[in-house]
Amino acid sequence: MGFACIDHHRQIRRGFPEVIYCPGKTTEQIIKIFSALAKKGNNVLATRAEEDVFEALAKTKKFPRARYEKSARAIVLEQKKLEPSKTIVPIVTAGTSDLPIAAEAKVTAEIMGQRTELICDVGVAGLHRLLGHLEKLQNANVIIVVAGMEGALASVVGGLVSCPVIAVPTSVGYGASFEGLSALLTMLNSCAAGVTVVNIDNGFSAGVTATLINRKIERNDS
Predict the structure, then answer these.
(1) How many helices and strands, by DSSP H and E, does the chain display?
(2) Among 1, 12, 93, 147, which is 20 to 30 Å from 207 by CA?
(3) How confident is the model at residue 4 (pLDDT cuts 50, 70, 90)?
(4) What is the pLDDT of residues 182-208, one digit of tens each?
(5) 135-178 tens-digit pLDDT
(6) Partners of 146 in the β-ladder
(7) C-alpha angle 143/148/150, rounded to 5°?
(8) d(Cα 86, Cα 40) in Å, to the nearest integer?
């Protein structure tokens, strides 16, 4: 890879946080990795972190600016302030039970400099509530839709807007939802053009993808 390509890659990656996926790691391992990544001076995001892990990290007194986002189960350390996005990334949830995954998407997008807004409880069981947010959805560059049960909300939103929709199936639902598989298949089979699907409960990937899309659009518009 030539130097020009390397430099271009660095430009693309600028603004990305250092990320730790916590499940499967001991508290000691997480703290050690967190410390090593923080030394680089970048922002750090630890996903799926339990509160006791944050408490152990706080006891080291190395990172007084680190905070715990309980709803997202994420540890956030912001060491570099990024210029906020011009436009807002809406994060739409079908129900309150989907909020933890939406919160993960929100924290991820925000640590990457995105302005976000949660639009909650607008699933197909209360579809009339979605219509009150239609104008802001239609003005967005990209939308994240988080839904469990049958996952129909992504198709509904996708049929109302002319921007990419990042659909996040969640493991919320009764037995026949198969821990998110029903929502995943519904979203993958959506007839609404522009709906793209991430893995079950993967709010992190949705936040990153939405950020990349929004950055590219805003860069081209400037």
Answers:
(1) 9, 9
(2) 1
(3) very low
(4) 999 999 999 898 999 999 999 999 999
(5) 999 999 999 999 998 889 999 999 999 999 999 999 988 988 89
(6) 93, 168
(7) 105
(8) 28
pTM: 0.87
Tokens representing residue 51 in the block: 């509160």
Paired tokens of 196? 């793209």
Q: Is the pLDDT of residue 2 over 90?
A: no
Q: Look at the block and give the residue holding tokens 């508290």.
A: 27
Burial 166-184 (b: 16+ CB within 10 A, else e): bbbbbbbbeeebebbebbb
d(CA 170, CA 149): 8
In the chain, where are the structural domains located? 3-77, 88-221
